[in-house]
Specification:
By secondary structure, this protein is α+β, with helices and mostly antiparallel strands. The chain has a domain of 103 residues: FAD/NAD(P)-binding domain, CATH 3.50.50.60. The chain has 16 helices and 17 strands. Strands 5-4-12-13-14-11-15 form a seven-stranded mixed beta sheet, with helices on both faces. Strands 7, 8, 9 and 16 form a four-stranded mixed beta sheet that branches. The longest helix is centred in the N-terminal third of the chain and has 23 residues. The chain starts with a strand and ends in a 21-residue tail after the last helix. The structure holds flavin-adenine dinucleotide. Flavin-adenine dinucleotide binds next to strand 7, strand 11, helix 15 and helix 16. The site of flavin-adenine dinucleotide has 25 residues, from strand 7, strand 11, helix 15 and helix 16.
C-alpha cells in the first residue's frame, strides 16, 4: 500500500476471486466475508484492448460483462457457435474447481489414500488429459478467435506462467472470472488485510511491525533437528531472540530455506532452486491521473497480437522486457471513491517482465532505474494509444514505480519475482514444496511460494494447511467450520 497526495494505491492484488475460499477462511475465524467486507460485484468484469492493427487507430475493446448468459453473448458475437462450446468449457471448469476444492487444494498430501478416493478415481479419465495437455492446446482446440483464446489463456499469468506451460487443469480459473464473476472489496485488498489483522488481535495475537527475522534457530543432530525460535531485528536495529517450539515462516520459501536456515537444516537448498522455474517479475506503475478515464474499466487487459513472442521475452532463453507488452491496468477509482481525490483517477499498471533483479528498482516521479522507467513510459504511451486516451501522459499528477529489485529487497522474493515459483505441472499440487520442513520438526511454511500456491485465496488455504499439519489432520477437504457465523452487523 502506498499513500501519496490523497491517492491510496494497493501495490499487490486487486482481483477478488474464489469468494468461497475467503468466506470459508472468515468462517473458521467465527465470522463471514459478508460481515467483514463490503464486496461489490464488478459489471463489466473487465475490458480487453487488443494491439491495434492501425497504430494510429485503437481497435474497439471487448467488454466482458458480469453473468454467464451475457458472457456467452459476447463470445457468440465474436465467434459464431462459440457460446455452446463455452457452456461446456465452463461446466468443465466448474467441475474442476469443485474437485480441486474437495480433494486437492486443502489436501496436506500426508496420506496417499486421500488421492485414491472413489470420486477421484472415477474422475481420472477426465483429470488425466487435463494434467498432460497444456492450457494453450486445450483452448486452441475449442476456440478460434484470438481474443477469446487470450481471455481463456491469460489466467495462466495469474499463476506465474504462460498458457503453453500451464496444465489445462487451470482452465478452472475461467469458472472464476467468467462464471462466478469478479468482486472488489471496498477499500481494496488493504482493507482485507486490516480485517484479518483486527480479528487476529482480538484473539490476543501480538503483531510486531517493521521487524526482520534474521535466523531460524534449530537444535539437534542431523535427522533429529527441531526448531527452537528465531532471531529478529526491530526497526531501530535492536536484535532480539524469540523462543518457540513452532515457527511458521510466511516469507518467500527460497529466502526462508537458503538464508534463514543453516545448510544442514535446509529441505530446499540453492541447488534445488536452480532446477526450478520462477514466475514473472513485474514493473508496477502507480499513477494518479487528473480527470475521468471512462475508457478504462475497473480491470483492463491489453493483449499484444504476437502473444508467443510476449511470453518468450519473459520466460525464454533471452529474457527482456517485452515491447509492446501485454499489460494489466486496474482503475479502482471506477468503483471506490476513497482511493483518489475528487476529480482524479487511481491507476495501477502491471507490466509482466522477467524475474531479474538486475532490471532495477522503481522510484517516485521518474526517479527509478532506467529500464524500469522506460518500461513505465512505454506502458503509459501504450495505454494512451490502445485505449484512445491521447492526453494520458500529460494528465499524470502522481507517478511511482516498482521494479524486480524492489521485490528482491523489500520482500526477499526469489529472483525478484512477483509471484514465486510458476505453476507448471512440476511445481503444482503435491509437487510444490509443502507446508512443513522435511528436516526440522516444528517448522512450517505458508504463503504463495509453498502449497497450494499463488494468489490470495491460495495463501489463505496455505494457513489452513499449516493448521492441519500441526493438528495431524490428514483430510483432503476444507476444515469443518466449528460454529455458525455470528449475524452481527459489519463493524466499521
Ligand atoms: C503485483 C501483484 C498483483 C497480484 N494480483 C493478485 C490478484 O489480483 N489476486 C490475487 O488473488 N493474487 C494476486 N497476486 C498474488 C498474491 O498477491 C500473492 O500470491 C500473495 O499476496 C502472496 O502472499 P504471501 O503471504 O505469500 O507473501 P507476501 O504478501 O509477499 O508476504 C510475505 C511477507 O514476508 C515478509 N518477509 C520476507 N522475509 C522476511 C524476514 N526475513 N523477516 C520478516 N518478514 C519477512 C515480506 O516483506 C512480506 O511482507 C498478485 C501479486 C502481485 C505481486
Amino acid at each position: 500500500m502506498l499513500e501519496r497526495d490523497g491517492f491510496r494505491f494497493d501495490t499487490g492484488p486487486s482481483w477478488y476471486l474464489m469468494p468461497r475460499v475467503f468466506d470459508h477462511f472468515f468462517r473458521l475465524l467465527g465470522t463471514s466475508a459478508e460481515e467483514q467486507l463490503d464486496l461489490r460485484t464488478l459489471d463489466p468484469g473487465y475490458r480487453v484492448f487488443r494491439e491495434p492493427e492501425d497504430p494510429l487507430q485503437p481497435d474497439p475493446p471487448v467488454t466482458v460483462p458480469f453473468g454467464t448468459a451475457k458472457v456467452a453473448e459476447t463470445f457468440e458475437a465474436l465467434e459464431p457457435g462459440s457460446a455452446s462450446v463455452l457452456a461446456d468449457y465452463l461446466a468443465s471448469a466448474a467441475h474442476a474447481t469443485d474437485m480441486a476444492e474437495k480433494h486437492f487444494l486443502y489436501n496436506p498430501f500426508t496420506r496417499a489414500r486421500s488421492l485414491t478416493g472413489r470420486e477421484v478415481l472415477r474422475d481420472l479419465p477426465r483429470l488425466v488429459p487435463l494434467l498432460t495437455r497444456s492450457l494453450e492446446r486445450h483452448v486452441a482446440g475449442r476456440f478460434r478467435h484470438p481474443v477469446l483464446r487470450q481471455i481463456l489463456g491469460y489466467p495462466a499469468v495469474f499463476l506465474g506462467t504462460d498458457p503453453a506451460r500451464a496444465p489445462a487443469m487451470y482452465h478452472l480459473m475461467s469458472a472464476l472470472d467468467l462464471d462466478e464473476g469478479v468482486q472488489y472489496p471496498m477499500g481494496g485488498f488493504g482493507e482485507l488485510v486490516t480485517r484479518i489483522e483486527r480479528l487476529a488481535e482480538a484473539q490476543g495475537v501480538e503483531i510486531v511491525r517493521d521487524a526482520e527475522v534474521t535466523r531460524i534457530i534449530t537444535t539437534g543432530a542431523q535427522g533429529r533437528k527441531r526448531v527452537t525460535g528465531v532471531h529478529w531485528r526491530d526497526g531501530d536495529g535492536a536484535e532480539h531472540r524469540e523462543t518457540s517450539d513452532v515457527v511458521v515462516s510466511a516469507a518467500d520459501l527460497h529466502h526462508t530455506e537458503t538464508v534463514l536456515l543453516h545448510p544442514e537444516a535446509q529441505s530446499y537448498p540453492e541447488s534445488w532452486w536452480e532446477r526450478r522455474v520462477s514466475g514473472p517479475g513485474a514493473v508496477i506503475v502507480l499513477l494518479g491521473v487528473s480527470g475521468a478515464l471512462p475508457e478504462l474499466s475497473h480491470h483492463s487487459l491489453l493483449f499484444t497480437r504476437d502473444w508467443k513472442e510476449n511470453f518468450s521475452a519473459i520466460f525464454g532463453e533471452d529474457p527482456r522486457i517485452p515491447d509492446p507488452a501485454s499489460i494489466y491496468v486496474c482503475r479502482p477509482s471506477a468503483t471506490d471513491a476513497g482511493v483518489a481525490p475528487a476529480g482524479h483517477e487511481n491507476l495501477f499498471v502491471l507490466v509482466p517482465v522477467p524475474a531479474e533483479p538486475a532490471l532495477g528498482s522503481g522510484g517516485a516521479d521518474g526517479a527509478g532505474d532506467p529500464a524500469v522507467e522506460r518500461a513505465a513510459d512505454a506502458a503509459i504511451d501504450q495505454i494512451a494509444r490502445w485505449a484512445g486516451i491521447p492526453d494520458l501522459r500529460e494528465r499524470v499528477v502522481v507517478r511511482h514505480t516498482l521494479g524486480p529489485a524492489d521485490f528482491a529487497r523489500d520482500y526477499h522474493s526469489w529472483r525478484g519475482g512477483m509471484l514465486g515459483p510458476a505453476h507448471t505441472l512440476r511445481q503444482s499440487a503435491f509437487l510444490r514444496p509443502q507446508n512443513q520442513s522435511k528436516r526440522v520438526a516444528g517448522l512450517y511454511y505458508a504463503g504463495a511460494t509453498t502449497a497450494p500456491g499463488v494468489g490470495v485465496p491460495m495463501c489463505l488455504i496455505s494457513a489452513e494447511l499449516v493448521l492441519k499439519r500441526i493438528r495431524g489432520d490428514h483430510s483432503a477437504g476444507p476444515t469443518a467450520v466449528p460454529t455458525p457465523a455470528r449475524t452481527t452487523e459489519r463493524s466499521r
